[in-house]
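Pilot study result, target chain (307 residues):
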Amino acid sequence: MPLGPTSSAINGSHTLADLSPPRPTALTIHPTALLSILDHYLRRTDAQHRVIGTLLGTRTRTSASSTPVVSVTHAFAVLHSETEEQVAVDGDYHRAMYEMFLKGRHQGKEGLSIVGWYATGSSECGQAGLGTFSALIQNFYEQETAPFPAVHLALDTGTEEGVGAGVRAYVSSPVGVYPKAENCVFVPIPCDLKFHESERSGLDLLLSSTPSNNFLPPSPLPALHTALVGTSDALNRVLAHVQAILSGEIPPDPALGKYLWNMLGAAPDDEGGWATALQDSVMVSYLANLVRGQAEVAARLALAGGT
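Predicted structure:
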């Protein structure tokens, strides 16, 4: 399919920073989007050193004053041509795919919209997918997501020598006196993988390192046994970590301790076993320290009165 005009991707300019909404500070991506990106990468031609596509998702805020968090749930491929001298993005194909996607989901009742774009592999300058051409493509998607900023997802597939697999997220910020498409800097933002608990078994099956020709889901009893063994192993690792902290082998991590506290406190317990035992332990420790302090004060007073 021939590529469409590239004027929108090259001659456009960035929106003024003081008029645009606040830029997102974090990104979460669903495994479905990652699998779509990897499938696109596996289907690339031999002449393509990387592939690009559109990210779909939602923008949410925890409060009125907080910055938005982008949640990427879907992705689709976009045709593009890239050489050492120029890059071209098929804007007509991109818009047609987006409209078809919305029609297939009843006019986007889920609130999905274009939030940015993705790229795989290394760039023409070998800087993890970031270069002059990436700035031009970013400018194109800035116009598609206006007035909201576009996010860029860089996926390392782990197939290149010396480069491990990983996902990174960026937002762009214009630089320079005169606004130009290529005058921008990519600022990294935190990127997390997010999925529902009901999808964990399917992901565990996909990530299983045991080769098997049977792709049917396991029966309930083996699945329960596997889940219990995994839970037991996780608890053993947590217990070993806590014991290493108590023995002074490794320094404590307040963030990890707070996370474990919240996780254990959120566990369902009708009798309040964990919460009650924890409160009892804290109360006993407090009373022991109080009695010890009072005994020491009484001893000092007796010593002072005797002299």
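One observation from the pilot: The longest strand covers residues 69-78. A full batch analysis is planned for the follow-on phase.
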